[in-house]
Write a structure and sequence with these properties.
mainly alpha; two-stranded antiparallel ribbon; oxidoreductase
């Protein structure tokens, strides 16, 4: 196995962060402080490791190499194994929330830490799975998304975002000059609404009622209610609150990443309501090797939008794609500081639009 292939095992390391936080408590660190450790690692340590590991610009060269990569079962198994890992992590984090001696600050840190980990460990692999053919992988992706209460992403992302990306019709493409604090609430609301509308339109086109068992959104929402009821039966209202809150944070984490991935980019309008074809020039790209291992090559987002069915291990780095000045962890923090974000990103976005 090549070192590059083995590197994707690091995607599972995110699940170790809550365990590390509890280990710090057992080592004498205050629970109020230790609860924030996962966030410190993701947004403070990961950028440093990115700098130490350098960038990865390597691509497959021939069509045969691409075919071999696409068909290697190892890469597919990695993303599927995330489901039991995440469900176990979420259960364990809920237990710790209910029993660790934490005050308000510690509880807040634990909820936010778990939610951000959910955005990385649940939603990101789910994003890979829902794009794939067949039934098994989209099913596993849907369960992952439902575990954080963002099941509409399975429908809207594939049938909405990938169709309308980099146009005013897309609720997950941030406009030039738009603050992340305006974008995220808008994206969360519109993506859920659009998912229900897309599914209703699909069913009406097939002569079926939107209010039937054929409605995918209804089925995923029923599963979410089952998970919610299980949380209530296990840990009462505290567990219910934790389950709901971690889901909101995970979904918001995803939308901040969407903000970073598409900020200010646009496709030319060829006719009213008709836009040029999506290419690798309509998403931001980032080559940091370590973060791409952590996120199953999500930072090669430009190629993902150009070839949505291509598996993560075969995604290409395009040097002529819009390039972020740093990896996702750094850009996430920068996005939370709108004046600094605009100073860094606006002129880049304008150059790409030009």
């Amino acid at each position: 196995m090549r070192a590059k292939d083995a590197g994707f095992l690091l995607a599972f390391s995110t699940a170790l962060l809550p365990w590390s936080a509890v280990a710090l408590v057992r080592g004498g660190v205050s629970p109020e402080l230790a609860a924030w450790f996962p966030l410190f690692f993701i947004f403070g340590v990961v950028p440093v490791i990115d700098a130490l590991c350098g960038d990865d610009y390597r691509n497959w060269v021939t069509a045969d190499e691409a075919t071999q990569l696409e068909h290697r079962r190892y890469f597919r198994i990695l993303t599927m194994l995330v489901l039991p890992l995440w469900l176990g992590t979420l259960t364990w984090c809920t237990w710790q929330f209910l029993h660790l001696p934490m005050g308000i600050g510690g509880r807040l840190g634990w909820v936010v830490s778990t939610g951000v980990i959910g955005g990385v460990l649940a939603i990101n692999p789910a994003h890979e799975l829902i794009h794939k053919p067949g039934r098994l992988e989209p099913l596993l992706g849907g369960i992952l998304l439902t575990s954080v209460g963002y099941q509409g992403f399975k429908v809207e992302h594939v049938r909405g975002h990938h169709v309308h990306v980099a146009t005013p019709l897309d609720s997950s493409s941030a406009r030039l000059g738009e603050s992340v604090y305006a974008f995220v609430p808008r994206a969360l609301w519109l993506n859920v609404r659009n998912a229900w509308r897309l599914e209703a339109t699909r069913l009406r086109g097939r002569g079926q009622s939107p209010w039937s068992a054929h409605n995918e959104m209804a089925r995923w929402s029923l599963l979410w209610l089952v998970l919610l009821a299980a949380s209530a039966a296990w840990g009462g209202w505290a567990a219910v609150g934790f389950f709901l809150a971690q889901g909101v944070i995970a979904a918001a984490t995803l939308e901040v990443i969407n903000y970073v991935e598409h900020y200010g980019l646009s496709r030319r309008e060829l006719a009213p309501g008709r836009y040029e074809r999506v290419t690798h020039r309509h998403s931001w790209n980032a080559p940091q090797r370590y973060t791409n291992w952590l996120l199953f090559n999500l930072q090669r987002h430009s190629d993902h939008h150009a070839q949505a069915r291509r598996r993560y291990q075969a995604l290409l780095h395009h040097p002529d794609s819009p390039q972020l000045p740093a990896g996702y962890a750094s850009m996430f923090v920068l996005a939370l500081l709108p004046p600094l974000w605009r100073r860094v990103m606006d002129h880049r976005a304008l150059a790409c639009r030009g």
